[in-house]
Write a structure and sequence with these properties.
It contains 9 helices and no strands. It is mainly alpha-helical. The longest helix has 24 residues. The chain starts with a helix and ends with a helix. It holds the Pfam family TetR_C_21.
Length: 186
């Protein structure tokens, strides 16, 4: 890895922590530069702006994460369990996604995650047309419900328990509940 690549990687790592903790508006380029042991100007050389740096972080963690977790329309319970596991291992993903939605809104800039969602929606529609999946819910509604259940125990999920209070055995119970809830849903 070249020196420039190493610096860029440190900036992305520092930016990930900064954006996950403070969002786009609250993140400070100065803190990112200090944490990355990099010159602040390099952030602008590599990423042009704080917004584009956020996009790079979002793409690296959220969009690529959606692509890394195997998806099949015929196994939505398994997919929900894998998403639950991925978000447990990468809690910054849910925080970044929440900040994106809060600060950019639904009709803001087109998300880099859109292609990953589009492929999943097409797959769900095909599975419904071919009779492999119930047509109780439209594909977008079904995917939204699956993701909501899978991420309910995350740092910005709907659960009433603080994430820190959930022990390893409780995570396994939560995962089982997610899988069974999605199985019931589908």
């Amino acid at each position: 890895m070249s020196r420039a690549e190493a610096t860029k990687a440190r900036i992305l790592a520092a930016a990930t922590a900064e954006f996950a903790a403070h969002g786009i508006a609250g993140a400070r380029v100065e803190r990112i530069a200090k944490t990355a042991s990099a010159n602040k100007n390099l952030i602008y050389v590599y990423f042009e702006s704080k917004d584009l740096l956020f996009d790079a972080v979002f793409d690296a963690h959220v969009a690529r994460g959606l692509e890394q977790v195997p998806f099949t329309a015929e196994d939505l319970p398994g997919y929900a369990g894998r998403i639950h596991d991925y978000c447990r291992e990468h809690p910054e993903v849910l925080r970044l996604a929440a900040w994106h939605r809060l600060e950019r809104g639904a009709e803001g800039d087109p998300s880099v995650a859109a292609p990953a969602y589009a492929a999943k929606l097409d797959s769900l529609a095909t599975a419904q047309r071919e009779g492999h999946l119930a047509v109780t819910f439209a594909p977008a509604t079904l995917l939204t419900l699956v993701l909501a259940l899978a991420t309910a125990w995350g740092p910005v999920g709907a659960t009433s328990l603080p994430v820190q209070a959930v022990q390893d055995s409780d995570w396994q119970e939560a995962r089982k509940a997610v899988v069974e809830a999605v199985r019931s849903l589908t």
